[in-house]
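anyone seen this seq b4? input:
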Amino acid sequence: MIRDIEHDMTIEMTRDERARRDFVSSLRSHVMRDMADAMHAEYHGQVAPEFERENGRLPESGPEVHKLMKSHDYFRFYSSIRYNAQEMVWRSVIPAVDRQLESLADKAKQFDAGKQAGSLILDPDLPMPKTVTSLDVHLAPGCYHSEFLADDVATGAVYDQGLNVFSANLMGEHLCDIGDSMSAFVKVRYPDLKPQRILDVGCTIGHNTLPWVRTFPDAEVHAIDVAAPALRYGHARAQALGLPVHFRQMNATALDYPDNQFDVVFNSMFLHELPIKDIRAVLKEVHRVLKPGGMLLTMELPPNNQSAPYDAFYLDWDCYYNQEPFYKAFRDQNYQDLVVQAGFDADKYFDTVMPSVAMSEPGVFEQAVHADAHFDDKTGRLTDGIVWYGFGAFKS
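predicted toks r here
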C-alpha cells in the first residue's frame, strides 16, 4: 500500500479508489522492478551473446540494443504492460479529483486570499509552448496546462496524486526526494554558499521546490512554470505546508527577471522535456539571471555518452513510448558543452551522483557528494537503491 498524501490540498478517496490506486502502484512497481530485471537478464543471457556470435562484437549503442530488443517478445510484453500501467496511474486518481474539483478550487482560492509569506502571479496572456499543447506528456490526459473551470487546479491535483502512485513510496513523505537530495547536496558540498535568492525553473507543483525552503530558511525561493492550474495548486499546497514560495507563470526560455538576481537556479527532470533549441535558451537565461559566483544545478538522467549501451536503451524508453519525444535528443548531448555554450566556463562545470538523502545510511550521502561522479544501472531508475545524477556550473 502507498501512503496517503497528507496536506490540506489533498483529496478524499473511497475504499474502492484507494484499492484501485494501490493496485496500479503495485503493478507499476512489478514492471519497473521484476519485469525490468527479467528483461535485463534476457538481454545479457540471450540477446547480447547471440548478437556477439553473429557479429563478433557486442552491441555498441542504445539504439542498437533497442533495435534488437524490439524483435523479442519479452520486450514487447514489458513495453505493453509499462505503457498501460502509465495510463492507469492517471486513471486511478482522476475520478476522485473530478468529484472534488470545485471544492479543491475553492480551497486554493482561500489559501491565496489568506495571510501568506509566498505569492502567486499568473500571466493569462502567456503563449503556451507547442511542446506543451501538442501532446499529453507522460501520457497525462490534457498535459499539465488544461483548465476545465475557473481558477482550476485539476492538473495539479492529478499530478500530485499520480506521482504518489507512480513513485510507490520511493519519493518520500511529500514526494520531494529529488529536491531534498539536491538542496542537501549544495549544503554539504558547498558549505560556504549561503544562497539568499533561489529559483526553480519548470517547477510543476513545486514538489522539489519546497525542500529548498526547509534547507535554506533564510533564502527567498521563487518557482516558475507555464501551467497555470499546476501553479495554483502548487501555491496552495505550499501554503498548506507552511512554506513560503513565490510562484510565477513564466516560460523559462525568456525569464522575466533582471540580470544577476539569483544565487542558485535549479531544475529537476525538466530539460529533457524540451527541444534542444529551448534547452540552449533556458541555460543561457539561467546564466544571465545568476549572480557572479552563483550556481546552476540540474537534476537529470545521465548522458548517453557515459552510459552502457543497455542502460542507454533502458533509460530512453520514455522517448519512444511515454510521450517525451525530446528525451533521447537531450541525453545524446554533451552536458558540459551545453553549459559552456550558455556562457559558463568549462572549468566551473561539475557533475555528481548522490543517493537519496532520505534513504541513505549516516555518512553515505556526505561521502557520495564529495566523490567523483560514477553511475551504474540504478542511476535515475525509480527503484530500491536509487541514486540521482546532477550536473551544473558556477558563473564566473
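Strands lie at 119-121, 197-201, 220-225, 246-249, 262-268, 290-300, 349-355, 387-394. The chain has 16 helices and eight strands. kinda curious what u guys think
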